[in-house]
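Morning!

This is the sequence you dropped in the shared folder:
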Amino acid sequence: MRVRQLTAAAAALLLAAGLGGCSDDPAPAHTPAPVPVSAEPTTATGDVRPADRTAVRDGGTLRWAVDGVPATLNVYQGAATADSALLAHALYPSLFRPDDHGRLVPDPDYLAGAESTPPGEQPQVVTYRLNPHAVWTDGTPLSAADLAAQRAALSGLDPAYRGGHPAGYDAVDSVAQGADPHEVRVTFRRPYAEWRSLFGPLYPAAETGTPTTFDRALTGGRPSAGPYTLARYDAEGGRVTLTRNPLWWGDVPKADRIDFIAVPPEQRLDALDQDRLDIAPITAAVDRAAPAPTAATPGAPPPAAPPAAAPEASALALRRAESLPGVTVHRAAAASLTQLTVNAARGPLTDPAVRRALGRAVDRRRIAEAALAPLGLPGAPLGNHLLAGDQEGYRDNSAAAGPADAVRLLDGAGWKRPGGRGTRTKGGKELALTLLVPAGSATAKRTADALTADLAENGIALKPVTAPAETFVRDHLATGDYDLALFSWPAGPSPASEQRPAYAKPRPDADGALVAGTNYGRSGTEEIDRLFDRACAEPDPAARLDLLQEADARIWQLGHSVPLYQRPELVGVRTDVAGAGAFGFGWPRFQDLGWVGAS
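The structure's back. Tokens below.
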């Protein structure tokens, strides 16, 4: 499992991705004709300065901005953040890692090979060959015991283990040593096609073997097995320091040390300018830049507070970032899908025809250009709920929603627009909807403005309503207190299991009330659930993609939501730092990060 952030445009809405996943139980998780565009990825998702190891000098320190020192390095605990995942990639094994297009490939530092039994052969058994040189920092080799303990902790079978239950672990029946200490045999109780997503990151059995050890916060002083090891974990001082792992068996890390420093987004451009940082995510610094305060005239009342997320302030912040000496701004489409989610349990949106009309009324290319072009990114619209435009198998399935345009659908649903002007009405009520957007985001504001214009052209009145990140999910998405909502879901290498909870049909609880789980659109069908379950169990990659395309087509037909664009990712990096940038689907190869040129 790779920890990801669900974001309300650029505001973090931390929800665990892939929890619940594919299961014999069709209930949703309580956690938080198609037109092909391309059968292959359209572009590489990352924008990273390549790390030619021969050109990267040995030694030196890298200073990397993070939001804060995380409460834990165990990404499966509820307190984990995106910074937990970033640090875990430097410190802990992942048997597979995503490439630039989100395809999981073996990491040879940890895995010499892996093979599943042929399709149709039951039970499914995956045989892993661990790298015989791979050891934890206490000298203990990686072994079946580590995989077995992690499976026990994450399977959900023992409620004493607190935290998430990533998809797939509940499908594992047993983990045992194979022919020798470096061979591990994992037997599944039911077919699980996305098995490559398991055991990444992998923690030592000493940290996951009992509920007590698993549930405690994972910080310093524990075994790890990455190119770097933990030298300092200072939550109060806002710094985590990694140094070279003396037992590391792979390519020798280039940098002597990496300092992860807690720097608020609004201070990162200053820190880059003052040479206090070398690598800094600046999406929020640009997207949430506040206008400069206006000086008050003597004797006059104080000026009104300027609007948050003014696009003009965002543009100024971006220009400043681009002009910083010795700094390059890297841009990429993040592994995160921004969509317009439609609340099917509310007012006129209970009618599928109205929901489909919304999808037809939205000019997705216009929206994407409005959101992304000011950031220097291509205005590429999304046409798929489950796959990003740069993932293998992506195609635009929007035509599955039907040939009718918004006007015909709305007229047919009884929402009339006499004279072809103004807001549509039915039974004396106007077709007026609210749009929930994250407060403070310039990208969200540009998107909301473009959506408002699109819907007005079709006789739908839209009123944007902002909510801060800390209440966006709790008080609105989870309770259904919205008509339309703008936020992002993560896109990952295992879409069948990771995306299923967002579209699973709501089920009644013991009192008969429908429980949406993380399906905030509150619409779903048995057919869509079955397609996801079949995709989870389908071992053939091409057949699995076909099932996902069919599921996506049914989601379009349901009018569940409208995919818009991939969330932007901006990172400021010292020009002479190699191996860093906007990583998109991938993550850093930490041993290659370093400084280019003479010291």
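Headline: The first strand starts at residue 6 and ends at 8.

More detail when I'm at my desk.
O.
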